[in-house]
Design brief:
Number of domains: 2
Distance between the termini: 61 Å
Order of helices and strands: HHHHHHHHHHHHHEEEHEEEEH
Number of strands: 7
Largest sheet: 7 strands, mixed
Number of helices: 15
CATH superfamily of the largest domain: Hypothetical protein, domain 2
Structural class: alpha+beta
CATH topology of the largest domain: Endonuclease III, domain 1
CATH architecture of the largest domain: Orthogonal Bundle
Strand content: 5-15%
Shape: globular
């Protein structure tokens, strides 16, 4: 349906109002940030220069993962690999082991590839522009903008989930996500200070984390509350508008927990694809509508094994694109039993050193009654 001329003019005027709506907001935001900024392991003290390596590492870890979860992993990584040179010389297996439990394992593979590229192609110095950063493995538009602003002071505004929420409420953005992302980015840029671009971005992130929260935002404490369109309307919790999510079909499979004394049978997944390069116990394919009988036929064959025992209950896990249910079978084999091709025995006592994704941790705990 086409808009009338009057409607078009109203829409254009509304956009112009938005663009001119924030002349004093950047200063208010930075004043608030100077008083209330969060203390985070990757943030330097006020006035100190941010380390591009620490900014990059934290931004990769924070993709789809909360600050509280990331904190201990960040500390472990920087203790083991304090700079890009050290991480660039590390093996992918070591990085995956250190990453185990953090999820979204393609991030770990990209992290390693990026470290290698910076060391090899850039003399261990990160590019200082968005364009240069985006040319590196695993760095997309948001991460490039975040590193450019926070580490190098480039006047750009990265837009994460917290900033999307703040901006969509501040300007009452009616268009649902993800379609609204370009408009939200444009509006977020009006909140950049003339200087301190990185602090402007981090101020909005902190505001969304501590004040402009998804539920029960503390609007009375917000430095930008006077001009917040959603607060004026009284429906701030309904922003940002979101399109209905599509949930993938449930997949089913079987996992086989085989022990040889105090050792467990494991294998490494192929490098590419879901959980690539991670450690797992043998298992069936994960397919929609797969029945237990079909899954059991995919069990590994080992000499001396009497029978499979099916554990009561199932292991459930939710990936980004689909939920998963796994039936767990257990078996014990004699000390002389060899691992099938592509598999290996590892002591149960050293499983913490393996790159086990969370779904496999659940499976092993269920199978071994840990």
């Amino acid at each position: 349906m086409s808009l009338s001329g009057a409607a078009v003019r109203r829409k254009q005027a509304s956009g112009a109002d938005r663009d001119q709506a924030a002349p004093g907001r950047p200063a208010l935001l930075l004043d608030w940030y100077d008083r209330h900024r969060r203390r985070l392991p990757w943030r330097p003290p006020p006035g100190a220069q941010a380390d591009p390596y620490r900014v990059w590492l934290s931004e990769i870890m924070l993709q789809q993962t909360g600050v509280k979860t990331v904190g201990p992993y960040f500390e472990k990584f920087t203790a083991r690999w304090p700079g890009i040179d050290a991480l660039g010389r590390a093996s992918l297996d070591d990085v995956l082991r250190m990453w185990a439990g953090l999820g979204y394992y393609s991030r770990a593979r990209n992290l390693h590839a990026c470290a290698v590229a910076v060391v090899r192609d850039h003399d261990s110095v990160f590019p200082d522009t968005e364009q240069g950063l985006q040319a590196l493995p695993g760095i997309g538009p948001y991460t490039a903008a975040a590193i450019a602003a926070i580490a190098f002071g480039r006047r750009t505004m990265p837009v994460d989930g917290n900033i999307e929420r703040v901006v969509s409420r501040l300007f009452a953005v009616e268009e649902p996500l993800p379609q609204a992302k370009p408009l939200i980015k444009q509006l977020a840029a009006t909140l950049l200070g003339e200087s301190r671009a990185g602090d402007s971005a981090q101020a909005l992130m902190d505001l969304g984390s501590s004040i402009c929260t998804p539920k029960k935002p503390a609007c009375a404490l917000c430095p930008l509350n006077d001009g917040c369109a959603a607060r004026t309307r009284g429906d701030q919790q309904t922003y940002p508008r979101k399109a209905a999510k599509k949930t993938g079909a449930l997949r089913r499979g079987a996992a086989f927990v085989v022990t040889r004394g105090d050792e467990l049978l494991v294998r490494t997944r192929v490098e590419k694809g879901l959980l690539g390069g991670m450690t797992e116990v043998p298992g069936s394919n994960w397919l929609a509508a797969q029945d237990d009988k079909t899954a059991l036929k995919q069990a590994p064959m080992l000499a001396g094994m009497a029978r499979w025992h099916r554990k009561a209950g199932i292991v459930t896990h939710v990936f980004t694109h689909f939920p998963l249910e796994l039936v767990v079978y257990t078996a014990n084999v004699p000390a002389r039993a060899r691992a099938p091709a592509g598999m290996r025995w590892v002591p149960v006592s050293t499983l913490q050193d393996e790159a086990l994704p969370n779904v496999m941790r659940k499976v092993i705990a269920h199978g071994l009654d840990l």
